[in-house]
Design a protein that fits this description.
Helix content: 25-40%
Structural class: alpha/beta
Distance between the termini: 74 Å
Low-confidence stretches: 342-349
Largest sheet: 9 strands, mixed
Number of helices: 9
Shape: globular
Number of domains: 2
Radius of gyration: 30 Å
Number of strands: 9
CATH topology of the largest domain: Rossmann fold
Amino acid sequence: MNTNGSTNGPVSAPPTNGARKPAPPKPAPITAGAPSQRSFLAEVKTGKLEQPLRVVVHGPQGVGKTTLAAGAPEPIFIGAEDGSAALDVARFPQPSSLDDVIAMVHELTRTATPYQTVVIDSLDWLEPMVWQHVCEAANSPRIKAIEDFGYGKGYVAALDEWRRLLIALDQLRAARRMHVVMIAHTAQKKTKNPAGDDWDRFALKLNEKAAGLVSEWADDVLFAQFEFFTERTRESRDGKEYQAKGVSTGRRLLYTTWNAAYDAKNRHGLPESIELSWPAFYELATAQTNEERAIVLADIDGLLPRVAPDVAAKASAERAAPLQRLRAIAARLRELASAPAAATAPDTTTAGA
């Protein structure tokens, strides 16, 4: 018999000490957070974003890495490498510390200049400055070299300084829409293979942790190399043993996709290899974006006669704007063109607002 008046099921036995058990706390209501006055969904954008490039180029000495970077639009070089000495390019004075390098990037960010590309030549020249900064920041008499931290801790601490540089470069890209090109030499490194034998491959001549961070940040990691092939010069009668020599074709190539023999990647759907030149690389890297830009500009041109002359003039003046800005202008023109009065009445609103 139910003695507490409930009809929802059996009644548990009362506690033996006569005290009633406290009721369990009610669970907190499930919410998705306090409502915000800002609608993030209203700010969602679609389509590809036209962004300045972040490129890392590595390869052997003399292959043409610096010449490739010098072919980028209006470059300015940061670094102490001599590879650009014979090139007619703009250079910062030689930095003596990591802080100098970051200060140069910040100055480019703050100041309007004609430069469109910043080139760091090279990463393996910069790495000792990163280590020096980490050691000095430790402020310990026993820390005189990066290995003195022990157990690889110094290389981990150095990642924070690499991140500081990469953040500064991203701020420069956002503020001035400048491309970033980083040059590095190549080292032959052992690759650990948990599924089989280890093997050697070409990789950035940097500490493994730093190389991984920089490669992940970059849009394109390009391996520059002389094109060559091997031919046998002598072999045993059974053909199992032979000697070979390398023969160069004279061509210099950029390899753009990962290979067991070298580090490379790209985010632009590039072919596996292309000619080592900035125009060849840039044309392919921006091909899809340029195609969409042409479509959006044609849309804008078709809408200009249907809006007020002052609005059309403002829109025409922004033909060189980034792709995402052109999409916004086209959307605004379409909105104005749909209202009959807007096509004849003056409009003081910016076309892309």
